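dumping these here so i dont lose them again. two proteins, back to back, each one seq then structure tokens. dont judge the mess
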Amino acid sequence: MNVQELLAAAKVKASEAKAMLAGDAPDMTKANALLAEAKGYREKAEAIKSAEGILEYAAGVVRPELPGGGDQAAAADGQAALKAANVLRFGAVDEPTDLVMREVYGGDYRQIALDQIKSFTRYMRSGAVDRALTRQVWGIEDVKSMLKDGLGVSEIKATMIEGQDTLGGYAVPPQMAAEILGRLPGLTVVRGGGATIVQTASNAIEWLKLTGGGSQYRTAMRGLWGSEVASPTEDDWTFGLETINVNTYTYKASMSQSLIEDAQNIVSIFNRLVTDTLAIDEDAAFLVGDGAGKPRGILPSSANGHSITEVHSGHASLLTVEGIKKLRRGVASQYRNAGRCSWIGNSATATAMEVFKDGVGRFYFEYLDAGETFMRSAWRESESMPDIAGSAFPLLFGDLSGYFIVERLGLSVVRFQDSATGINKVEFHVRRRIGGNLLEPWKLAVQEVAA
């Protein structure tokens, strides 16, 4: 919520409290609670206004030159304000991280990132492009992650892309990209449920896929018990290379010209619009994608050919309590950790399960809310899951770490405004590189509606 929305909310709460107190039998407890909410909204609004004031001051600070070496107090104030502004923008940064970031960027990374944000905002409003948007740079958390994965500073620098042709558009600044992509786990069921994330700078990865096992051992590999001098035996195991392509994903966000010109929070509006759509499209691909220019989904189909365990519901057209309990046992015990496993269905499936009754009319399950525990594991909802119908797969259970998401860091965007977009209309085409495939199908089981 911005300042205006917070103040409006405070006014509403205060009015409700006033109306309650004016009644014949006022509820003092509720009235005090409403007044406390109003106060909280006002305090948040003041905090935001103060932070914005610091940012504006830091962006426009001028240190006056006075005889005798200048105004030292004003210079100190300016430095303090600039430091506070950087903390608000980028968070507190320790000295080792600061040194690495300066080496990666080849200069003051905070200024480079800030210039890119300003350039992107100008590009959104007018379409004007400068060189700052032709380089895909990484944020602090991205660099830390690469360092932990063993990359050196020179290798990280090499992954920064220069040139519009390679990007397929203009780079979204790292802080903005981090805000968009950072919200995805909370809005998605596959990524948010613990899928394995692999970040790459190539167009595909190859993963070693072992086979030849059973329900207990998923491969034919075995260890050897014996003395220190015993030679290990060579077991009869097989393996292959599974390729996961990094697909291209594009999304078109349309806005009116007047909104782009007049809205002060145009960047945050853009971020929310893109994030929600990314989350929905991503989950649809990871759950039911056919692999044709997109990720291969988890659910069984002729397109993906996954050997995921299918457990019948026990009825030709409905789910049953017995079938759901059997589904949980469709995952072998060593992979059925309650804290790691999830249930996934759509809201219609959840409704059908909520109204299950026993022989005397009592409900089996009180409710199913996303994020809450159902039969000891988290319940997650996605409208991309199929509805309940004969031969459909409306319910999924298991450890989602068996699904692998491969992605390239960063986002790019292209702005369009011409006769094709229409009068007073601007289009932003967002581009992302991402792929996915189920490499460990034994960690999941699916309910098939069948007798």
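---- next one ----
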Amino acid sequence: MAEWFGVRCIVAHPESSYEERITLWQADSFDEAVAMAEADAEAYAEDSGATFLGFAQAFVMAQAPGHGSEVFCLERESELEPDEYLDAFFDTGAEREASLDETG
């Protein structure tokens, strides 16, 4: 029976930026979901002038997607304090994003 998977793939853009994409796939296995996501990432990268880095992580969803569904989860062991952890992995200052209070 097919299950839903969230798969994160990384692409590199020519202007020295990296993009993490999480896509949803209905598949019979992790291997099938990753294969579909990698093919999609290759096509996406080619269409946008980027390079797919060949990195994919998959997460099997506990239920079919719906409002508020968790689509991807990755746990990482770390000795860093919470603020240091966020700064090291998610808030380096190089992200292309705006804070909610900046978007109006």
